[in-house]
Amino acid sequence: MEKEDPIARLEREKAEKKKSNGFAVVALAIVAVGLAAALAIVGTRDYKMVKELEADKADLSERIETLQKEFADLSSDYDFINSQLDSSREEVAVLVSRIKSTEATNRAKMRQYEKELGTLRSIMRNYLVQIDSLNQQNQKLSAELSSTKKTLAEATGKNQELEAQNKDLSSKVATGSVVKARGIVCKAYNGSDKVTDRSSRVRRLAVELSLVENDLAKRGPMTVYLRVKDPEGNLLLDGTDASFAFGGEAVAATASREVDYEGSEVDMIIYVNDIPQYEKGVYTVDVYSVSGLLGTTELVLR
Questions:
Q1: pLDDT tens-place values along the chain, 302 residues long
Q2: How far apart, in whole angstroms, are the C-alpha atoms of residue 56 and residue 161?
Q3: Helix axes 79-101, 6-73, angle to 10 degrees
């Protein structure tokens, strides 16, 4: 075998080395391009994922802020629900703050906040159902109360009407039960028990009257009183100190007489004695019972 020239060998090795280095550069270039492409793909994918996560965070923030506004607008007429609402509003406010301060790429936290949002929305629905139920109950109770008041007012009106009727009836009965008198006549008698109109000869007066029949009147003893006034208006007193109650006060009487009244008509005479003297003029005679004035008559003496 022919021995290779050393110079030729060196050139050959140099060429082979150069060729080998070229292959390496090409390989490295291919690898670099592949790596760049891979990095570009990964970077694009990560960028897209971050954008999606940020969009999810924005959506979550919008929903929790909407819920926060709904809680702020919700109110009730019930103190115990208002107290619970205040507590729930604080929870919503805390969740809003936590979402804003958390990175969108923190998926675990975002999933946790999503669950908390769902829980708070369920609580909101429960409040709405509870408030609506209480409002319906209150409307029903208000309607029942209004009906009860109306019934009570009607009953009160009927009672008042019945009381008025009873009062009117009682008044009519009381009025109807009063004994009345008729045929009241006053006569003057002289010492011979003869009627006279001469004042100087009068010794006594006699007042005749009839108590009218009345089935409603009280049965039993009944006293009739006379008040005789002279022409000057002075009350004549016969010394018996007769008196009766009238208008809540004790009233002096000239004379009186008690009879037994049983509802039937009673004729009676009341005498006035022991009057020292009579003057000329018109004498007024008023007849009373404890129920009031029974009638009036006059006597003229000359």
A1: 555 566 666 667 666 666 665 665 556 666 666 665 555 554 556 667 778 888 888 888 888 889 888 888 888 888 888 888 888 888 888 888 888 888 878 888 888 888 888 888 888 888 888 888 888 888 888 888 888 888 888 877 777 776 766 565 444 444 455 788 899 999 999 999 999 999 999 999 999 999 988 877 788 999 999 999 999 999 999 888 899 998 888 999 999 999 999 888 999 999 999 999 999 999 999 999 988 899 999 999 99
A2: 76
A3: 160
Residues in the chain: 302
DSSP β-ladder status, 220-229 and 281-289: antiparallel
Structure tokens at 79: 């103190």
Q: Which strands, in side-by-side order, build the sheet including 266-272?
A: 181-189, 204-211, 266-272
Residues 64, 112: contact at Cβ < 8 Å? no
CB 120 within 8 A of CB 91: yes
DSSP structure class, residue 200: G
Q: At what angle do helices 6-73 and 107-176 cross, to 10 degrees?
A: 0
Closest CA to 184 of 284, 264, 57: 284
Q: How many angstroms separate the CA atoms of 266 and 180, rounded?
A: 11
